[in-house]
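Hi R.,

Here are the chain sequences for the assembly we discussed:
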Amino acid sequence: MFLRDVFFMYASQSLHTPLDQLFSFYRKQVVVCLKPLVLEYYPDLVKQRQDEYRKMMELSAKMTVVGHACAEIAGFPYDARRQMIGSLFGGCCFLADSFIDDFGLDIANSYIDRMDDLLTKGWFEIRTDREKLFYVIIARLFAERNVLDPLLRQAILLLFQAQKRDVAFRSDPESIRSRPRREQLRILRESARNRSGHAILVLTGFLVPAIPLHYLSMIFLAGSLIMHIDDHGDCYSDLHYHRVTYLNQVADPERTLRRIFQGHITRLRQGLPEGSGRDLLIAFLTKYFATRLQKHRLQKTHRELAWAVYD
Amino acid sequence: MWCVRFLAFSRTQTFKEEEARCSGAHRVMGRSPEDTTGTTDVYWGDVFAIALQELRSQGKISDARPLFRIDGQAEAAMAPYQFDPVYGKLHRRGCSNIADDSRSALFARWSMAVDEQFLACPHCRPHPYPRGQEAQDVTLDILFGVISILDQFGTVLRERGKEYRTSIDGQELERKLEDLYQNLDRQQKDTLGVMLHSMDQMVKFLREADRNLSQVHDKPVNGHVPTNGHGMAKKKAHETGTMKARNGNGKRPVRRQNSRKSK
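And here is the predicted structure of the full complex:
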């Protein structure tokens, strides 16, 4: 193990709460799960893109914690296999987001076209090592569950449609700007809600064989909250790269986010079954909310922290 | 490979079997025997998955027909119910009370349990129908055909094929496949024929690749001592194909500095 991995695993850990202890554990787990794949299929990520690699691991650790909560809400233990699925899903999301966000519109559109092929025909043209890693991760994910399960296949498709819509808006910003402001905000809010709401349902669909319908809407709600929190944390980098989001367009984003957070948490507390799954999900969302408010403020005053990996 | 892995699960998709898998009793086809505890060491399934896509890119297998289709919009359009996860309401299909902002998030449903009545839309008032099922297309059937080929020809399983066919599982699979084939109509049989032909081509290609690789690795290269197969586990997938040569026509995506947003 490289020294930088040890640093990554221990530097950002605070072990004051059970949630922090769980994060600490899953940070190690995701490295065990994903690092061999990265080294085999896209070694440059570890060797030359350390910041990105660390962000991938941190995002995967978050997905693993969220997966833990969702599995328990659905009534299944979060065993080693499910932890592995959570880690793989985190890696998959990170890479998919990078195709959409980080390499310009041509790459984003190319990703959308090839994902369309994958979902409609099963074929995926691999062009780079990064895409090879992405493909191997999703192939492994697909091996862990019946992807033709009605709920899972719909969640995958709805997630893809949300991504496609996002990329379409970026390709043609006028299609949003030309609308009345109220309509713009509605579209942006819906877009954020769908991207993360369906992502968390895909994760849950890979983790467990069945989700009670009522909990499905609660998990979707939690997912949409994650996206709003995430967008608030990324507000300045999104604005810098002309990425329009609901939270960077409203007049008072912090106040808006607080209102959304309180409303969603109240609904989750009432709608989810009592138990460790619900408690973990709410604890995670609360911590994520607090850290992203802090991130937003830090980035407002210290733009150079844009590269930092946040807990 | 997609379908191998998918089919490995398809055999175990019932709830009980799923739980048996979770307790460690499962075996995913292609995964090494020691790899049953949720670890993700590189294994030949990855190489196989990549090889399948490369075969298609090189035009060595036909992509005229889909390998499999996750997009289930055609089936979803026929479902009797729609679940709105935004407001937690279950509707009849096309209910006029479905909120506009929910339409991009609707899930098609084929059944409604009695204990889901509290989610029912008060406007369209759907009635429970617990036994509804999604209408499956022939994709699943074709994929079951594929697994029979792979069970017999998949690399190390080749010698075990005969043994497998005489086993209880093998005989059961054979019986199901015979029943399945008898029930296919003309078009479905044609589709299956195309698929089997493609798989046959792929198996031939893989055998050829395997033979070429064996020849390369049997010779001392640059003074290296022959390893008699040892050290093959770390062989990189892209060394067997043309992935690097076709790496975006020589262009790799160039990341703008500071373009990665913080996660």
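Residues 109 and 211 of chain B are 49 Å apart (CA to CA). The two ends of chain B are 31 Å apart (CA to CA).

Let me know if anything looks off.

Best,
T.
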